[in-house]
Amino acid sequence: MNTIPVNDNPVTVHIDLASGEFNPCMEMQKRNLSSMVMMFSDQKAVEDTLKNEDRFIYQIRYYPFITRNSDMSLGTTMIMPGKIGNEYHMTKGHFHEADNQPEIYHCVTGEGALQMMDLNGEYHSAVWTPGTITHIPPQFAHRVINTGTTPLVFVASFHVAAGHIYGPIESKGFKYIWVEKDGKPVELLNPKWA
Ligand code: M6P
Ligand code: ZN
Q1: Residue ranges around ligand 1 (CB below 6 Å)
Q2: Close Cβ partners of 180 (under 8 Å, ≥ 6 residues apart)
Q3: Does 2 score more than 90 pLDDT?
Q4: pLDDT digits over 123-173, tens only?
Q5: How far is the centre of ligand 1, averaged over its atoms, from the C-alpha of 60 (Å)?
Q6: Confidence of residue 66 (pLDDT cuts 50, 70, 90)
Q7: Cα(61)–Cα(104) distance, rounded to whole angstroms?
Q8: Which atom of ligand 1 is nearest to the CA of 144?
Q9: Is 77 helix (H, G, I), strand (E, B) or coil?
């Protein structure tokens, strides 16, 4: 990671809504299938895909706005269209390390869904089109799914101090999975939760 500049003055950035490209950008991260093997429910489909390619699933870009006494971060994520077996491409999904940290997600391009779940299994999902904005309360894990045929881009606004926890999602996933059935996206009970 580049050194984060402390800047008490206003900062303006530019985002290309079609690609999620961000200028200036402090950090970029690419996630390929091999870095999120446990997140997909059809492990045979994961194995078969990896035999041919380590498929590029999504890209994260972000810029932290740090002043001497505040911090905010703005990120974009671009998820490629596609499926692993019948399950749509998606982000890994995470809880925040800090239990008082919310986040706002804003869909700017593409079609998809946001799923949210707390540690007791309380589950919510929201269908997304460009312009949809969802407030994710503290203590809800969050994951975005691209159910369309074009890249999905969303903007995220969060405090740098929120942090990421992936373990619970890696081991048990969300309560529901988003799969294609008869050409349409449907939400099915995750076999790991049955
Ligand atoms: C958003 C923010 C980031 C997050 C990214 C991808 O841009 O919430 O903090 O890293 O989405 O999500 P994940 O970390 O679950 O792969
Ligand atoms: Zn988050």
Answers
A1: 60, 75, 77, 91-94, 103, 156, 158, 164
A2: 83, 86, 88, 147, 186
A3: no
A4: 999 999 999 999 999 999 999 999 999 999 999 999 999 999 999 999 999
A5: 7
A6: very high
A7: 16
A8: 12
A9: strand
